[in-house]
Specification:
Oligomer: heterodimer
Largest sheet of chain B: 7 strands, mixed
Mean pLDDT of chain A: 85
Largest sheet of chain A: 7 strands, mixed
Low-confidence stretches of chain B: 1-10
Largest interface: A-B, 31 and 31 residues
CATH architecture of the largest domain in chain A: 3-Layer(aba) Sandwich
Shape of chain B: globular
Number of helices of chain B: 15
Mean pLDDT of chain B: 95
Distance between the termini of chain B: 72 Å
CATH superfamily of the largest domain in chain A: Aldehyde Dehydrogenase, Chain A, domain 1
Structural class of chain A: alpha/beta
Helix content of chain A: 25-40%
Shape of chain A: globular
Strand content of chain B: 15-25%
Strand content of chain A: 15-25%
Number of strands of chain A: 18
Radius of gyration of chain A: 24 Å
Number of domains of chain A: 2
Low-confidence stretches of chain A: 1-26, 32-42, 231-242
């Protein structure tokens, strides 16, 4: 399920990867054409349809109306995916053939790079430059990465204590439900869909029914997916209705997803949730470089990253210089139309986020943190927020504890692990011992040393503590979409054990 | 058995390609050998010369190694992320797919292989192999370690450097890619020495490699004679590893050369005398097909050929009847003829060698059931030959013949056949035909061989590692294991202080 975002385009691309080449046409009519697509191979024009608007966050205006899927649509999608898995060719194709399909998809993404980037920028507010030069190419890269895994999914032969031949088969899990967030819609699509398909699963094309996309709202469609028991009990009751649900989003919603999964059929859950990641500037840091990296770590993607370096800890000896330069850097940050060249920061995603960020800024001021710069909306239209920097932030302030998900940097003097989150951390130092000590001491899923937001395909990503369960990307992501079957056969007179 | 019509009708099927590439490929260019010397490569169907190929000497090998060394030490290939190497390798695979016919023609012409097999099975498999390793290039993981003291350790899997790849003549294209693909994926650079009996496919592949974007110096090809160019590679002081597929005899020499030069790592895929064991419960039809396929495929010029066929006594008579019956339909003829099953042996030397072994077989008292003679008088064709009542210690039961000769032995019990199957200095492959779970498990674990095929044979897959036991060699091809030949493991250890866990 693509939370409130347009992904029909992608599903259509996948299923027509052999049939029809992409066509370039007016972007708006393209969106119109795909916004009625809910699932399956053909875009469905349903009789009377609920829709919901997709907004342009530069202005708050409606771009298009997107089909609103609810529990019934989820049922149809799961049903199609279940059928495709149980009866369709996908899991029975050779891994090599699956990898060829994934490679072909990557080629198509590359071919439609600019179109996809424009859609993303338009709907999300991130700069077109970031979408076109970084995110869309990364989507293609990830699919090629997973294509290469498809025929390398190895189980083990295992030494037993007695005369047994033991093998572990790593089998596809079945139907995967995936709930994708709005901050990196294309990237998150790849992180989830890539490994699931590489392992031979189908998702609630490609052969019909393998990939299904349902747009809609979290509490309706999302909840339906999380609590799905598998549609047709009469027909499939003999089959283990094993669905796995993979969710990226807020911690609050993550809890609901896990609860629904538990209450329904105990489906396996992977969660990638919020963060309040520390960025630690040690006293031996090159200040100019540290300032730039810390700035990037927080402000990237309008501050809308689960792993944003949202608590910048600076060693007291370099604090003053660091603060002065960070403030100057924030003041220099260019805010405006994401399609314009040279703009660093676009609007926040929507009014809800926009209002939330302004409330946190207010709370920061009220709790007596020092507002160094910014602090208010930018312009009078759309959801732009001024790049904001707070200093003299204390650990117990709301702006130091809660995930703001906006362009609000909080600078504190030194102390790292006091958070219920544990998604990422950044360490800026030249000292070998400091780097080693901190990287082991920090309770976070990723520790970046002298870099930040390095998201190569092979690097696993995920949270400690309440930032989530499970890892995405890399070889680790495969575990989410496989189940292990041990096959044990008695041996007569084995030559060796 | 039926022989194709004489040479006039075979002309109808033959399409001679333009031989575009006959020179050495060094540092991205096709160049003459320094000496200017050439050697002839022959079409074994007609004994005619196809082309004159540059003959590389030690000096040419030096040049190639120099180019490969520079490409490794200073060039971009090992410094590219694995993903980028993979992208170029995928392009190489695409180019192969676009030129399947050309490669198939060269292979059939130069090595006498069956053209229809080349276009439908052999050549298509090599782009798959490239893609397998293209997808592996960014998945070479080391480990972080659990040490027993206050130290942090991890292993880095580094490319070994400049590798020498000595390629045989029986699958010139497939072997070229088999050896090169993992080396490319790992970030190594290489000097390839193709067998002098069939050098054409290698040179064409070098041309495609360049078109694909493999940087100059990364992949070099020096054609020449084994005992000169091949020996120069094996004993070169600046090559870090040599991988060889060929005869056990030459494998020994290569290992010796490594010892007397710079102790370069060695991997060898050598000869075999692989047993195919057919049990009483086997389906006679299936078993006969497997036996023929196992021993006669590619005119018996496959290292894993099932050249010893053990048949359990209960099924013996029926199987032998079926075998002879089916062998009669095994067509030997022009490899370009779509109805041909078997082309000519690769050259005069092999041809004479096989005939000499057949002679031995007759003289040693084995019973010749079918074949045993040359086929026609043009080209190096030999009839599919089946001997029964072969004594375990006879020459034709012990030596690798590398021709279309099957030696059949009868056996009684499982334990007996395990002993007899293992009574060889080789250990490359084995086949088992049975539906009994216990027999399958017992025998597969007891036979000392690198690959055991149950109810199938000659089943190769990019993902399945193969390689020999005993004097069939060491080191693996195919599968992620194949990368190990081209990678060295480096451990990096640092003290840590005040770690919250150990």
């Amino acid at each position: 399920m693509a939370a409130r975002r347009i992904s029909g385009f992608i599903s259509r691309s996948l299923s027509s990867s052999i049939a029809s080449p992409g066509r370039t046409c007016n972007l708006r009519s393209e969106i119109q054409r795909f916004s009625t697509a809910a699932a399956l191979q053909e875009p469905i024009t349903p009789p009377v349809r609920k829709t919901f608007p997709a907004f342009d966050p530069r202005t708050g205006e409606v771009i298009a109306n997107v089909a609103e899927g609810d529990a019934e649509d989820i049922n149809r999608a799961v049903s199609a995916a279940r059928k495709a898995f149980d009866e369709g060719p996908w899991p029975k194709m050779t891994a090599y053939e699956r990898s060829c399909v994934l490679l072909r998809f990557a080629d198509l993404v590359e071919k439609h790079n600019d179109e996809l980037a424009a859609l993303e920028s338009w709907n999300n507010g991130k700069t077109y430059e970031q979408a076109a030069k970084s995110e869309v190419p990364m989507l293609a890269r990830l699919f090629r990465y997973y294509a290469g895994w498809a025929d390398k999914i190895h189980g083990l032969t295992v030494p037993a204590d007695g005369p047994y031949h033991v093998q572990t088969l790593h089998e596809p899990i079945g139907v995967a439900g995936q709930i994708i967030p709005w901050n990196f819609p294309l990237l998150m699509f790849a992180w989830k869909v890539g490994p699931a398909l590489a392992c031979g699963n189908t998702i609630a094309g490609l052969p019909p029914g393998v990939l299904n996309v349902v747009s809609g709202f979290g509490p309706t469609a999302g909840a339906a997916l999380a609590s799905h028991m598998d549609v047709d009990k009469v027909r499939y009751s003999h089959v283990n209705p094993c669905i796995i649900i993979a969710f990226t989003g807020s911690t609050e919603t993550g809890k609901i997803v896990q609860e629904l999964a538990a209450k329904s059929n105990l489906k396996a859950v992977t969660l990638e949730l919020g963060g309040k990641s520390p960025f630690i500037v040690c006293e031996d840091a090159d200040i100019d470089k540290a300032v730039e990296l810390a700035h990037f770590a927080l402000f990237f993607n309008q501050g809308q990253c689960c792993c944003a370096g949202s608590r910048t800890f600076v060693h007291e000896r370099v604090h003053e210089e660091f603060l002065e330069k960070s403030k100057a850097r924030a003041l220099r940050r260019t805010v405006g139309d994401p399609f314009q060249k040279g703009i660093e920061q676009g609007p926040q995603i929507d009014s809800e986020q926009f209002e939330k960020i302004l409330r946190y800024i207010k709370s920061g001021v009220e709790s007596n943190a020092t507002l160094e710069c910014g602090g208010d909306r930018f312009g009078s239209k759309g959801f732009y927020v001024q790049p904001t920097v707070f200093s003299n932030v204390k650990d117990d302030m709301l702006i130091a504890k809660d995930e703001i998900f906006g362009p609000v940097q909080s600078i504190l003097k030194f102390k790292a692990n006091a958070t219920r989150y544990g998604l990422a951390a950044g360490v800026f130092t030249q000292n070998l011992d400091t780097a080693n000590r901190l990287s082991r001491a920090l309770r976070a899923g990723t520790v970046w040393v002298n870099c930040f937001d390095v998201f190569d395909a092979a690097i696993p990503f995920g949270g400690y503590k309440m930032s989530g369960i499970g890892r995405e990307k890399g070889i680790y992501s495969l575990h989410n979409y496989l189940q292990v079957k041990a096959v044990v056969t008695a041996l007569k007179n084995p030559a060796w054990l | 058995m039926v022989m194709a019509d004489g040479s006039t009708s075979s002309e109808n099927y033959k399409r001679i390609p333009n031989i575009g590439f006959t020179n050495l490929f060094i540092n991205g260019d096709f160049v003459h050998s320094i000496s200017g010397k050439t050697f002839e490569t022959i079409d074994p169907s007609t004994k005619q010369v196809i082309a004159n190929i540059a003959q590389g000497d030690k000096e040419d090998v030096d040049l190639a190694v120099k180019a490969a060394r520079q490409a490794f030490d200073d060039g971009c290939w090992p410094r590219m992320p694995g993903y980028m190497r993979g992208k170029i390798m995928n392009k190489f695979a695409d180019l192969i797919d676009e030129n399947i016919e050309e490669l198939a023609l060269l292979e059939t012409l130069d090595a006498g292989k069956v053209f229809s097999f080349e276009t439908t099975v052999d050549i298509p498999s090599i782009s798959k192999e490239l893609r397998y390793f293209a997808g592996a290039a960014d998945k070479i993981h080391g480990k972080t370690l659990k040490l027993s003291s206050e130290f942090q350790g991890y292993t880095l899997l580094e490319p070994i450097g400049v590798v020498g790849l000595i390629i045989p003549w029986n699958f010139p294209s497939a072997m070229f890619i088999l050896k090169c693909a993992p080396a490319l994926a790992a970030g190594c650079t290489m000097v390839v020495k193709p067998a002098e009996q069939a050098p054409l496919p290698a040179l064409y592949l070098a041309h495609l490699a360049k078109l694909a974007g493999i940087p100059d110096g990364v992949l070099n090809v020096v054609t020449g004679l084994g005992h000169i160019a091949g020996a120069a590679v094996a004993s070169h002081m600046d090559i870090d590893s040599v991988s060889f597929t060929g005869s056990t005899e030459v494998g020994r020499r290569i290992m010796q050369a490594s010892a007397t030069s710079n102790l370069k790592t060695v991997s060898l895929e050598l000869g075999g005398k692989s047993p195919l064991i057919i049990f009483d419960d086997a389906d006679v039809d299936q078993a006969a097909d497997l036996a023929l396929f196992g021993s006669l495929a590619n005119k018996g010029e496959i290292c894993v050929c099932s050249s010893r066929v053990f048949v359990q006594e209960g099924i013996y008579d029926e199987l032998m009847k079926k075998l002879v019956e089916k062998a009669k339909t095994w067509i030997v003829g022009d490899p370009f003829d779509p109805s041909t099953c078997q082309g000519p042996q690769v050259d005069k030397k092999q041809y004479e060698r096989v005939l000499s072994y057949i002679d031995h077989g007759k003289r040693e008292g084995a019973t010749l059931l079918i074949g045993g003679k040359p086929c026609g008088d043009e080209g190096y064709f030999i009839e599919p030959t089946i001997f029964e009542n072969v004594a375990d210690d006879s020459l034709i039961a012990r030596d690798e013949i590398f021709g279309p000769v099957m030696a059949v032995m009868k056996f009684k019990t499982v334990e007996e056949v395990i002993k007899r199957g293992n009574a060889t200095s080789y250990g490359l492959a084995a086949g088992i035909v049975t539906n009994d779970l216990n027999i399958a498990n017992r025998v597969s674990r007891s036979i000392r061989a690198g690959i055991v095929w149950i109810n199938c044979y000659h089943n190769f897959d990019s993902g399945c590692p193969i390689g020999g036991y005993k004097m069939s060699g060491f080191g693996k091809d195919h599968g992620m294991e194949a990368l190990q030949k081209y990678i060295k493991t480096k451990a990096v250890v640092t003290p840590i202080y005040d770690s919250p866990w150990l």
